[in-house]
Amino acid sequence: MKMKSLQFYSPLNVKFEEVEIPNPKDDEVQVKIMAALTCGTDVKTYKRGHPVLIKKTPSGFGHELSGIIYKTGKNVIGFNEGDRVAVANSAPCFNCFYCRHGDYNLCENLEFLNGAYAEYINIPSAIVKRNLIKIPDDLSFERAAFAEPLANVVHGIEKTDLKPNQTVGIIGLGPIGIMFAKLAKMKGTKVIAAGRNPLKLNIAKEFDCADEIIDLTKYNHPERIFMEFTEEKKGLDVAVECVGLPEIWEMTLKIVRKGGTVHFFGGCPGGTSINIETKRLHYDQIKILSIFHHTPLYFREAIRLIYEEKLPVEKLITETLPLKNAEEALIKHMKGEALKVLLKP
Question: 0.85 cut: is pTM over it?
């Protein structure tokens, strides 16, 4: 069987071409992709490759998707051809050291699913068993494709343990930052969100995700602006970095009050480091948190939130393009000309 797929050959070298897709194994299902979304991780992969997601070339890539089960392996139980599904991009083994300790997102055998920028995708056994979810007929494929990125945010929110009336700062207004801000606001906190891209700032306003939205391009010392919106100008109760740059991590440490919490949610490039003033960390009793990825529990919670329309995730889609324009979509995302591009095979 052949299909159209965007194939990664090397950084900035991708080709939209016809490739073979094997029949699913006995414990796998094959999904006809109905919606796929661009993501910052996929943009990074396009720009420089990825040691985890791209193990050999050529390779399909993309990981936020939903679709319809097209074929099932003979040993698959609980799924049938025609089922509408949301697909996570990984699943824990439940057997390794970290899974036994409940840290399912840190599973030693976490295999990442890649290949959403295509017409079809085979779903590995572990995901079929633990992270492939049927979705209702009245949940659109476009909205369901947000389950994976939202699952990361739900995980981050729950581990941050926000309290009503806290003042929370969100740095970075990509899709992750906007959804994080919205969920924080739903927890009863006062949310101050900040970014630089005009498109993202406008969408954040439409998303109604914050009490204050700050355009950081207007200020020479952004860290001071956050203080203006906090009680007695002491600093934020919680600051969440959703950019993934070392210099922004360092700035985030400066804007929380004594006893405050810093959540480094944006992942920085490998090999980078930051400088931390130990006096500030110890004597001001700053708590540091960093949450990675999602678990089956949070993937299901994300689908529930989307289905119950708690978040207007469709507002994060700034453009819809056919699958053949996947590289164009990635370039627009990379240039900050799009927030999320919806790709339809």
Answer: yes
